[in-house]
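Budget justification note: compute hours in this period were largely spent on complex prediction jobs such as the one shown. Inputs:
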Amino acid sequence: MSNLEEKMSSVNLNAWFGQKQVLKDISMSIKAHTVTAIIGPSGCGKSTFIRTLNRMHELVPGARMSGQILLDGTDIYGNEVDPVRVRRRVGMVFQKPNPFPTMSIYDNVAAGLRLTGTKKGKNLDKVVRTSLEQATLWDEVKDDLKKPGTSISGGQQQRLCIARAIALQPEVILMDEPCSALDPIATAKIEELVVQLKENYTVVIVTHNMQQAGRVSDYTAFMYLGQLIEFGDTTTVFENPKSELTEKYITGKFG
Amino acid sequence: MFHSYGFRKFKNKLFFVLCLLCVVIAVVPLLSILYEVIARGAPQINLEFLTANGLQGGIGPAIQGTLILIGLTSIMGIPLGVLSGIYLAEYGNNKYASWMRTINDILTEFPSIVVGITAYSIIVVGLIGTFSPIAGAIALSFMLVPIVARTTEESIKLVPNSVREASMALGAHRWRTIFSVVLPSAKNGMITGTLLAVARVAGETAPILLTIMGNSYFFQGMNQPMDALPLRIFLNSRQPSAELQAEAWGAALILILMVLVLNIGVRLASRGRLRR
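Corresponding output:
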């Protein structure tokens, strides 16, 4: 898989909240059309790391960073880069499903296009349908598109959020523990979906569930206390880890 | 012995009775005011009383004036208050905003008579040169803006941050996020708070006493004195005439009814919306 094209990479990335350093010199490469999983114990900086990939990190008061994040070779923290543009190209799905509570299912999917001022007129119906289909939600909600986005189950809400992200046709989709609030059946559906998504998108998924990382990802990064301990293709990291720390974490000796 | 089960049970009862007693004591004046206003005001109410001008013994100009004041005050005060509230809630993470918040809180509790004389000296004497509905509405806006700003800020802060993040992560700009995602979620609280604030300032007397002056005739123009219900109550009740005093009671009942209708209307409307 080493000849795959690089989609994103972080170069000597450091991040802080106030005085506290949460990411220490992280350099890693994310290949196009793959799923990269980021694992590690709570508080190791996984979430902060993926939030630097679409410039959501800087929205938190007191947050800073240094280093570079390259998207197709261009630093997204460059002076002339508008964070709003970055976020259109790098979509995000959050830990807790967060559909817009005042909007219907249809409007939730269309929200990205409307909020960013790229109305598609008659095509909107089509975009909403394709996005819901790609998020494997269409069959379940096609008769209820007018119902509030919060009226469906948690797992469906999370797939709705994925559809909402897909509707903007991003290049990369970031997922921050997307299944942590869901039951096993809903989780299985999302995992299936994640694997399908890499056909069209590059996916980075944070998870504290190692089995999940093993099931869905091509590459795995193990982080501990703000540092990138190990990064490689998933099979190697799980079956033949270089670091003792990784092995201990994967075998459940801590975390 | 004092720690016996019976004694603890008694303390529990005692506390409940004390609380109940205080509620009763607090409610008695309120009910007696309501009773007095209804008993004395109700006999006055008829179509002529509500529609005739002051010289014919009616409060038509006062009702009209209060409605005009509510309208003008809302047009001036609500946008200002709502936008201030948005600023405080969404961009208010700095020293300047925390100063604004403190000043705003003080303004909320500002004695209304001080607002009245300030409006009188600056607007009536200084800027316009006559008593005017505009001056009255500006004085009432002084009172409305801080309340609306506060309720707006509180309602917006109740919107979970995850909703904002969802919108920002889609590549929406800040203002788009605020107007299309945050405000619709905060809408119920904002509408309730704003209408209650309007109902409150509609009953204020001091700020309009020195700015619209009072008038026996229907609306005369923006540069003429105007009547309003609180003002009519105040002016008539000071007259040594049983007839005029009775009119004041009638006006009081109408004012209370207007405020009550606004209040209850708001509650019903917001309850209906929450149920969805």
